[in-house]
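Q: Got a minute? One more chain.
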Amino acid sequence: MASPRSTRTPAPTPTARRAATPERAVGTIQLGVIGIDSSHLSEFSRRINTLNQNGATPCQVTQMWTDGVHDMPADEVTKWRMQAEAFGVVASDKLDDMLDAVDGVLVLTVNGNRHLEHARPALERGLPTYIDKPLSCSLDEARTILELAERHRARCYSASSLRFAAEVVAAAEDNTIGKAIAIDAYGPGELNPSMPGLFHYGVHTVEMIDAIWGPGVARVRCTSTDDRDLLDLAYADGRVARLRMERVGAYDFGAVVHGTGGIHSFKVDFDGVYDRLVEGMVGFFGGEAPPASLERIVENIAVMEAGNRSAATGGGWIDLS
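A: Always. Here it is, folded:
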């Protein structure tokens, strides 16, 4: 089942960093973005800053920084940067200056292979940090992010927007089907050369399943063809899941959850999904527990890494232990 955000920690308190932006209203939680080569830069900035203008959150995206290395076309990156600027986000020349001035960080670099590199400076400062999906493209790097967050007491999480689909939440909360024992899920299987195999788009379907019934994967196997990935998950308590990720099929997400007393079927309607993702973000930066624990996200990285290894070695079972 998806974890409710019921545990609260104290909201960020004013620090010496606030002196860097005296024009800000008292109580504002300033957020800085690392990485500008994703449409999420403009999508998240617009939503967060609109909520702030409407008095719905103290959070505000105020600064962004890039090292100039981008994994998306230059014209797209320029468009997203200009859109963010229109929402009041200012480019910072130096990462240290931005980190000294903000109260929280969003790592939005599109390439998951760079997320540890870009999150490390924020985590080492103890700043609350959201890392866009995937958390990383390596289990070792995911564990390092978890270790850095724990050592520096930096609150941190990562999440796919699929966790926040209304249909996924409803499936997680449906008690009418009895004990959930199996899931057949589907989603797009788009590939990206910078993030091998399941890491680019498989992450969405993997996190969708985790949001429905939580962690506990014991073994993984994956068969990969030109057209699709078929990922099987066997859980330590006997649950099983099959994830079909299509590259030529319709661009849809959904699942059938099989229970001891019935089934629950759904197809995701994306209306409002980003809004709910951002609501989780501003709640997190405001002091609420993260919508997904970092430990669960690390397990998802282990699942995808094992799936890629299985696909590359003939489709046999890989033990996650």
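A: Residues 16-161+274-291 form a domain with the Rossmann fold fold (CATH 3.40.50.720).
Q: Perfect, thanks.
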